[in-house]
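Look over this record before class:
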Amino acid sequence: MILVYGISNCDSVKKARAWLTERALAHEFHDFKKLGVPGDRLAAWEREVGWEKLLNRQGTTWRKLDAAAQAGISDAASAMALMQAQPSIIKRPVIEWSPGKGSTTVGVDLTGWAVRLQAPSA
């Protein structure tokens, strides 16, 4: 089962969910606003894709931080603490294609997703 993490009113998340639905791909959605960010999943994503990719420095939440707070995000520990406290700062969607098997993607990549689905399973 594909797991999609994000915020329900986020355009990127809406696009991802619609893309999966159009292809009749079963998936579950985990809304950060309603359910929070599972600490174990955040740690797994950081190991798989790195905190730099997870942290959305282009979004409104980042821009609202003062310069000192932004400057304070310099390593995985500081970034993870911020993402746990302010889930809106996580780049979305986070998709676990095969949960627990190191197959996480971050952000919208329709071409990459299509290639992933065509690749033979290992």
